[in-house]
Design a protein that fits this description.
single chain; alpha+beta; Glutamine Phosphoribosylpyrophosphate, subunit 1, domain 1; 7-stranded antiparallel beta sheet; 6-stranded antiparallel beta sheet; 20 helices
């Protein structure tokens, strides 16, 4: 089945008992055989915006690699989806090399400035700053990492010249693009960033009113920056005039930032080994800390020990199991995962430990579960990090079969709300815990420190067959809910054998601590009643919702989709 341009509708029918997928349809994974050669040669792009996906596909048409196309996608996303990601932010890129079967993680996460302190988000009396105050301050911005990370990945896996990858985004910025309904919704939202002067100025018409869907938005400053980025490479951002303007911008206001030209010049991406573990008939590969990939694998391995697959999506017990396993995972993730050398990854993924955690799932939801004590764990504080929704995920495969699964972000909506040269600066420093120690004096693993990367919920994932062939990829936007969004979709696509489009469209349920949030109106009354009987009163969530993109190989056929909650598309190059 060849991929075509595709906008997937929300197929809520599968979540109602009258039309639920029969549980006898389960057993899919054993048939996830290696993809035939004909399909391997079919390049595709899945991204959260049609203009961005088309920019990537245009690169593939010219013979570009998956990394080449990802660069073009990111450049366009920074323009047309600035509420989610951009060149002023960071990213994790999960790369599959078809010729070697090797997976490499490119860590482009932002870092704290050298002058950062563990108490920089505390008031003089020691209490944390309000998030809405911190997020628009100069202190919110870390050293952006996406551009330099992409340049390193391009040096390793690029085919076309770097200078040739920004043309579509540059022309679109110069000529303008039509504001989409989703961007318009974010422009008119009521978040602290929407009140930032740069946000208001950028999205206002000459008469002072805000842009609406259907209006044209021109960004000459960004077009000029992209021309310099194409010609100069990453130096266009990390040194010179743009770097100077970034430093000047973050130092404005009542809570000035600590970023310096030296911080920008010193930034280095990190190539890391993926964490890979078997899940059903797949090998699941995710980024290591400071990403939360270990949490995603832990959650899927706990669910693998339950009967969630046999029960199917119409059974409230399935969603109860998902919620309780999620709470156990988040308790561990929040306590132990950060940019520190002693994250107990092996202990968290030890089969005996996972089994002990899964046994804690009882018949009724109780108080928030406590973190466990996996092997190698050190004493750590209860987590106080607030991680808002945001972000974007993209998947690209080139003609050689190489795959990029990349999650990219400026953190919350429009980042810090501060703009330089036509792009928004990240607020990634607010992904750190504001309190460096808890009331018992225990240190927070995600406390601020110079040069440290904030913990991330981004989990760009790649699935392999047992013999090392590409079998699928998935990722999402959504702040700390990303892990739940991805896990829900994997359960639906693999455990319940549901087509990827319907799996991504399935209702979201995020259970963390004492909070049970989800898309209440998309669950049937029977499921909601069943959850209440099990101690879970689901409440509406908030923010940008999920932004999933996913693809899986089924019996040699490609099943790819973009989250219908956003404006994503699947574009492909049919092969002769």
């Amino acid at each position: 089945m060849r991929l075509t341009r595709l906008l997937l509708p929300l197929l809520a029918c599968v979540w109602l008992p009258a039309c639920a997928t029969p549980t006898t349809a389960q057993a899919p994974v054993a048939e996830a055989a290696a993809e035939p050669k004909a399909a391997t040669a079919e390049p595709f792009v899945i991204a959260a915006n049609p203009l961005a996906a088309q920019a990537g596909l245009n690169v593939l048409k010219r013979g570009g690699s998956a990394v080449d196309a990802a660069i073009a996608v990111q450049a366009m996303l920074s323009l047309v989806e600035p509420q989610s990601s951009g060149v002023g932010g960071g990213a994790f890129l999960n790369y599959f090399d078809a010729s070697t079967g090797k997976i490499t993680i490119y860590d482009g996460r932002e870092v704290a400035p050298a002058q950062a302190t563990s108490t920089m988000f505390l008031r003089p009396d020691g209490t944390p700053l309000p998030f809405d105050e911190a997020v628009v301050s100069g202190r919110a911005t870390g050293v952006p990492g996406a551009v330099k990370m992409l340049s390193v990945a391009h040096a390793d896996h690029g085919k076309l010249p770097w200078s040739s990858l920004f043309g579509d985004a540059e022309r679109t910025a110069s000529g303008g693009f039509i504001v989409s309904p989703r961007l318009a919704r974010m422009i008119h939202a009521n978040f602290a960033e929407n009140r930032a002067p740069d946000v208001i100025a950028y999205f206002s018409k000459p008469d002072g009113t805000l842009l609406n869907a259907g209006d044209r938005l021109v960004n000459k400053s960004y077009a000029d920056f992209l021309r310099r980025l194409a010609a100069q490479g990453p130096a266009a951002l990390y040194s010179g005039s743009t770097a100077g303007r970034i430093v000047e911008k973050v130092r404005q206001g009542a809570l000035p930032g600590l970023l310096t030209m030296a911080d920008l010049a010193a930034y280095r991406p990190v190539k890391r080994a993926a964490i890979c573990r078997p899940y059903r008939a797949y090998e699941m590969c995710v980024p290591p800390p400071p990403s939360s990939g270990v949490g995603l694998i832990q959650l899927m391995k706990m669910l693998e020990l339950t009967d969630i697959g046999a029960r199917g999506p119409a059974d409230p017990q399935s969603w109860f199991l998902f919620a309780e396993a999620s709470r156990l995972m988040y308790a561990d993730r929040d306590r132990y995962v950060g940019d520190v050398p002693n994250v107990p990854v092996e202990g968290l993924l030890d089969p005996a430990y996972i089994a002990s955690r899964a046994k804690l799932i009882g018949p009724v939801a109780g108080p928030p579960p406590r973190a466990g004590m996996p092997a190698g764990a050190l004493v750590a504080a209860n987590d106080s990090t607030y991680e808002p929704t945001g972000t974007s995920h993209l998947i690209v495969r080139d003609a050689a079969g190489n795959v990029v699964s990349m999650t990219t972000t400026v953190e919350s909506i429009f980042g810090s709300g501060r703009m330089v040269d036509g792009f928004f600066l990240n607020n990634q420093m607010t992904d750190f815990a504001f309190r460096p120690v808890d009331d018992q004096g225990r240190p927070a693993v995600n406390a601020v420190a110079p040069g440290k990367r904030p913990r991330s919920s981004m989990v760009p994932t790649i699935l392999l067959t047992p013999d090392g062939k590409f079998a699928g990829a998935i990722g999402s936007a959504g702040g700390n809910a990303i892990i739940a969004y991805v896990a829900k979709s994997l359960v639906a696509a693999i455990e319940w054998n549901i087509p990827m489009g319907q799996a991504l469209a399935a209702p979201n349920l995020v259970a963390r601590g004492a909070n049970f949030q989800g898309e209440v109106t998309k669950f049937s009354p029977e499921i909601l009643d069943g959850l209440r009987q099990r101690g879970i009163d689901l409440k509406p969530g908030q923010g940008e919702d999920s932004g999933l993109t996913g693809v899986i190989i089924r019996d040699g056929r490609i099943d790819g989709a973009a989250d219908p909650r956003r404006e994503g598309v699947v574009l492909s190059l049919p092969q002769p």
